[in-house]
Write a structure and sequence with these properties.
With about 300 residues, this protein is of the alpha+beta class. Helices cover about 50% and strands about 10% of the residues. A four-stranded antiparallel sheet has the order 5-6-4-7, covered by helices on one side. The protein has a three-stranded antiparallel sheet with strand order 1-3-2. Strand 2 and strand 3 form a beta hairpin. The longest helix is centred in the last third of the chain and has 28 residues. It starts with 19 loop residues before the first helix and ends with a helix.
Amino acid sequence: MSEVTAIPDATSGAAVGTRPQHLLLTLLGDFWYHRSESLPSTALVRLLAEFGVTEPNARAAISRLARKDLLVATRQGRRTAYALSETGHATLVEGTRRIFRFGNDPQPWDGRWTMVAFSVPEENRPLRSTLRTRLRWLGFTALFDGVWTAPGDHSAEAGALLAELSLTTATIVVGTACGPAEGDPARAWDLQGLSDRYTAFLADFGDIAERVHAGEVSDTEALVRRTTLIDVWRTFPALDPELPVELLPADWPARRARELFTDVYDALGPRATRRFRELVAVDDPAAAPLARHHTSTEALSEA
């Protein structure tokens, strides 16, 4: 087993190492996207049980999502149901946009870099942690201590982030790099480690691509595999800044990994939806037909 993910057992549905909260949001984002209707808590518990999540852990995950204002509790007669909140809906839309746009449209590079140099006092560690996390999501990485870089002109996004955080002890510079090879900004990324993760992804999910096209995947396995697939793929945008092709080694595996992701994601959709509806129908037959899957192309247009 590679370190990229905990692949679920196709028969038991166990998804060891995947947090129930993430699993539930992935399921809702995949089959309950843009829906405002509530689903019974028992249906949500039943869905998570497909991944080996116990009922107490499932209910704890639902409660935590509600406390985070991602789900809203409602009453359906004598039972509790949950709908996506406005915050939850916005979170899924942003997540869908990021997941499916990632690697879809490589941009040409003009040879320039954006550097963000900052100084944050030790006593303000939470601000420093937030800044680093947000910079990483913008495609930056640490070149030196307090100096982060990204290929291309990202001055607008970086400037907006600094303004949002009210950080004035920072400078943004856009330009070309010169100097010793040891200071090459491209060296800031662990390209070998990232390549290994893509290679492991290809190995982990290559078998399911062959089997689904041969009609050898059940609806139950389809739901588990499709959900795990997207839960793993969502980690790559935070790891891969999508460096220009000029900075990448030959035969970079990211494109092949994305092709496998979209192929498997689309192929498993109908079978996974049938299983999702079947599970929901046990507790809410009227809501079950509302569940639907979308293809990778539709996800791009709907985000």
